[in-house]
Structure formats: C-alpha cells, structure tokens
Automatic annotation (TrEMBL):
Source species of the chain: Thermoleophilum album
Cofactor: Mn(2+); Fe(2+); Zn(2+)
The record's free-text note on cofactor binding: Binds 1 Mn(2+) or Fe(2+) ion per subunit. Binds 1 zinc ion per subunit.
GO MF annotations, alphabetized: DNA-binding transcription factor activity; transcription cis-regulatory region binding; zinc ion binding
The entry's keywords: DNA-binding, Iron, Metal-binding, Repressor, Transcription, Transcription regulation, Zinc
UniProt-listed GO biological process terms: negative regulation of DNA-templated transcription; regulation of secondary metabolite biosynthetic process
Stated name of the protein: Fur family transcriptional regulator, ferric uptake regulator
C-alpha cells in the first residue's frame, strides 16, 4: 500500500496526548505497546494498516503482535480517536481523528490500491447544510472517491488493445 500522505506533525503531537488522556479517562491503562501504537500512529497523517504499524513498531524495537495492534486500533476507533477506512479487499486503514475536527477525505485506486487525500471547503459546507436538514444528529462523515489513479490509467492506455480485459 503506497499511501502518498504527508505527516502533519504539529497537529499529531497534540493528538497523541489527547489519545492517551482519553484512554486513561476510560479506564484503559497505558501499557508500553499501547503507547507505542498511539505514538507511531501520531506521525501518520493518513491511513496505515495494522500490519504496517506493527512493522514500524518492530523496527523501533517494540514487539507486539499484529492482532493486538488491530485490537488497539479498534479500541481507538470505538473511542472516536481513530478514523477507519475500509478497503474493498477487506483490509482497513486507520488514521488519527484530530480533536479539532480537521480532516481529509480519500481517493482510492481500484487497480493498485494507491490512496491519495483531498480537502474541499465547498464539500464540507454542503455536508454541514445537509446534516442540518436530515433528522439524524450527524456526528461524522466519510467521503471516499474510488477510481483509477493516473499511473494505472497510463498503463491501461499503453497496453495493446487485445490484452485489455484479459487476466494478467
Ligand atoms: Zn487519510
Ligand atoms: Zn469532510
């Protein structure tokens, strides 16, 4: 998974303090693996998988199984500290949910899995206006655009016509 995402360290530094404080307020002790997961996630502005996170932790000398990384990510998502993005192949990406509500949305390539992010003020205004019209109390939203990234589109255009649609 090649996520073309830039870490935003100034905001994520506050996120890890916020996440650890929220865990503690809910009675979860801050074990070393849990702290390490929060800190590793804080440096990632955009989605990461449980497996990628586990690899990064292992390289930093923190031994923790991928199942326990996944459980911690689910816990953080349940507490509203992490946003979860489900991928079509059954995988999921996790990223910090910043306390100030600032966020981005995603473009996902259906061919190679590349993920890019976008922000759009007009879209946010439209969603806010819509949220006031519907009967639900809207707490959050996700917007994901799926399609083909420029690299995959170029490869597709370059392929000879008779190989298109064939299984390679
Ligand atoms: Zn993201
Ligand atoms: Zn939004």
């Amino acid at each position: 998974m090649a996520a073309r995402c830039v870490p935003k360290l100034e905001t994520s530094t506050r996120w890890d303090d916020h996440a650890l404080a929220t865990l503690q307020a809910h009675g979860y002790r801050s074990s070393r693996p849990r702290r390490a997961i929060v800190q590793a996630l804080a440096t990632r502005h955009c989605g990461t998988t449980a497996r990628e996170l586990q690899g990064a932790l292992e390289r930093a000398g923190v031994r923790v199984g991928v199942a326990s990384v996944y459980r911690t990510l689910e816990l953080l998502a349940d507490l509203g500290l992490v946003r979860r993005l489900d991928l079509r192949d059954g995988g999921a990406l996790f990223e910090p949910a910043l306390p100030d509500g600032s966020h981005h949305h995603h473009l996902i390539c259906e061919a190679c899995g590349e993920v890019e992010t976008f922000e759009d003020a007009a879209l946010e205004r439209a969603i806010t206006a819509l949220a006031q019209r519907v009967r639900f109390q809207v707490a959050a939203h996700d917007v994901t655009l799926r399609g083909i990234c420029p690299d995959c589109a170029a490869r597709r255009d370059a392929a000879p016509a008779d190989s298109r649609g064939g299984r390679r």
